[in-house]
Amino acid sequence: MDNYKKSWKFGASALLLCFLISLVWCFGVRTPAFSIAVDGSKALVVSDKAVASQAIDQLPDSAMGGKIDINRTFANRRDIVPSDQVLDALATALLPKIQGVSILVDGQPVLYMADKDSAQQLLDRMVQENTTVTGEETLLAAGFSEDIQIVEGNVPTEWISDWDQAWNKINLGTETPEVYIVQEGDSLWGIARANDMYVTDIVTSNNIQEDCVLAPGQTIILSKPAALVTVVAQVEGSENVVIPYQTVTENDNSVDGINIKSEGQNGEKYVAYSATLRNGIIESKTIVEEQIIKAAIDKVVVKGRSVQVASRGKSGASAGTGRLSWPVSGSISQSYGGGHTGLDIAGPTGSAIAAAASGVVTFAGWQGGYGNFVIINHGNGTVTRYAHCSKLLVKNGQRVSQGQTIGLRGSTGRSTGPHLHFEVMVGGSFRNPINYLR
Ligand SMILES: [Zn+2]
What we know:
The chain is of the alpha+beta class. The chain is built from eight helices and 26 strands. The protein has three domains: 68 residues, no CATH class; 122 residues, Membrane-bound Lytic Murein Transglycosylase D, Chain A (Roll); 129 residues, Glucose Permease (Domain IIA) (Distorted Sandwich), CATH 2.70.70. The strands form seven sheets. Strands 16, 17, 19, 20, 21, 23, 25 and 26 form an eight-stranded antiparallel β-sheet that branches. Strands 6-10-13-14 form a four-stranded antiparallel β-sheet, with no helix packed on it. Helix 6 crosses helix 7. The longest helix has 28 residues. The structure holds zinc ion (ZN). Zinc ion binds next to loops.
């Protein structure tokens, strides 16, 4: 008797538990809802009938292509379209569709194309264009940093991009970029300036080199690059770089003025590196090996009695004869030309930047893409400019002597790594600094 009672109790509790679980299942996971079907196939699920009817009433006449039915159903809560998105979802469901593919980036559809092959070709081309290496570089690995999927399915016909539209969109984030037709006498720098862009943006958006020759009539895309995907590439390479000589000063009270005891000579070194590129732009560079090919020879200056370093005559003469000294040591990461208005001298953050010649500071502060920026006027129409400083050590109006520390190397403003962007201007136009450095 006892046994019978026990098993009855057990059976009843099990039944109750089952019932409760079903209840939780039905109303916790699946819930009563209304499905809207277009031409007999389920398009979307909404929480109540009023929301559905309202959306249908609000549809523009042009969207009323198919037969719409509303039916009671049970649905997963996460499948129910939020009320404020019902109208858009319904309009989309009513668009005429064809078989196509969507490209998903981290699960989000960003681009629609006619077939799988075109989508795959587009992605392959994106990788290829962003992994071009120079002669001394080897590509080790490349891939997307996002999770990319190509999914086949029915896609609204009007959403499908052709190759050119898709290429613009994946590269620039827009199918219809703003364009400019090159005029006689245009330079990349001038076009960038006129359109409030950086030369590097134009170079990236147009897949061209900074030193390319522009032809009148050529079309230049003015949209800033905003790629929908990120190609990450690992490369290794080597290069020979200049080691700028240092200037050392000796004091000798037996002579007068400043005398150059011996001229300096730049050295050269071989550098092997590995680098990471993000969409073709160097993100980080690690030196793997360094070999001095030719050591730099210090320039030795003897300072005698009654030295007048910062005399007006001297600074003017020194600048006018093209005597600028290297502002900082490092490797030339980018030379002058093709829209690049200065010389990029890369090296550690915090290295002292020296005035290339004596003069007067006419600007010391923040200036947009230049970051912390110093301009020194040396007289005779010669001006030198120092960009991306991590710290400024001079003030506007201050008189500086050649070799005086004016700031520290950094990566402020528009810069992809610590370097000094050094510009030389003569008579108001940019000159190649290398021709003025001694
Ligand atoms: Zn630069």
